[in-house]
What does this fold into?
Amino acid sequence: MAMRKDNTIEYVEGDVPDPLRGEYRDKDGKTIDITGFTITLHIGYEDAPLVKTATITDGPNGVFEFGWNPGDIVAGDYQAEVQITNASGRPLTYPASAGEFYFRVREAIA
It folds into this structure.
């Protein structure tokens, strides 16, 4: 995998981190109103991919977050993607090209 620091989120196995927050913007950086959208995070765990549904925290300003539960963070290196489905049901998956977004989770020492 071609992981780089700027495209990789790093955690420690077993942790329950603060929610992962995102903002949906167009190519010019303008916020997109996501009221009525469904946003899911897919992490490619080998045994069973993890799918998390976002909470829309500020729809008009495009803000959402994914909360974590115990057991969600598993050691390894994984590709990930976010799927955004608009209010009319049209899905878009980001990143559009494969291999650009990763989770790196190291084993816990303690």
Notes: The domain at 5-98 is CATH 2.60.40 (Immunoglobulin-like). The beta strands are 8-12, 20-23, 38-43, 50-53, 55-58, 63-66, 76-85, 91-94, 102-106. The longest strand covers residues 76-85.
